[in-house]
Design a protein that fits this description.
It is built from 4 helices and 5 strands; from the N terminus they run βαβαββαβα.
Length: 161
């Protein structure tokens, strides 16, 4: 499993993905990778290629309200108008990854609606609360995956059938 926090520390709420990764540091075994990147599609694609599960966290433009969390298990194909404050969308990374066979086996995306994408540091209060919520969701997902890995498969449980 890899958790990819996308964003820029210099664009206020755009740092939401980075803050989630910071909040998760030290909470997982070494086989869970925590990384950050600026969202450039080939960077994201290189990070998630071949992973069992890639979890991507990024700030998104507000539509429901600051701090609202969107969760998806896939990314739609990119459109010509699809851009983010990173220059191009994660949808483009997914589209390129599909074409180049560089997708993870599973994908989960968390989008945290921001309110302030101006220059500077620091998250707005609703985004800060959402960061904690998303970090808890990801921690629960990692625990669930660990329990699933620990269960013996029917052909490994010692029974002779």
């Amino acid at each position: 499993m890899i958790v990819i926090g996308v964003g820029s520390e210099l664009r206020r709420d755009d740092a939401a993905g980075l803050a989630v990764v910071d909040e998760l540091r030290g909470r997982f075994p070494p086989d869970v990778r925590l990384v950050t990147c600026d969202g450039e599609p080939t960077c994201v694609m290189d990070l998630w290629a071949g992973e069992d599960l890639a979890v991507v966290v990024d700030a998104v433009s507000p539509s429901c309200g600051p701090g609202h969390v969107h969760e998806a298990t896939d990314l739609p194909a990119a459109s010509h108008a699809d851009t983010s404050c990173h220059g191009m969308s994660l949808g483009l990374a997914a589209e390129l990854g599909r074409v180049l066979d560089r997708m993870p086996h599973g994908l989960r995306v968390y989008g945290i609606e921001g309110v302030d994408f101006g220059f500077g540091a620091g998250l707005s209060p609703p985004v800060r609360r959402a960061v904690t919520e998303v970090a808890e969701r990801i921690a629960a997902l990692a625990r669930q995956m660990a329990r699933h890995r620990e269960r013996p498969r029917p052909d490994q449980d010692g029974s002779t059938g």
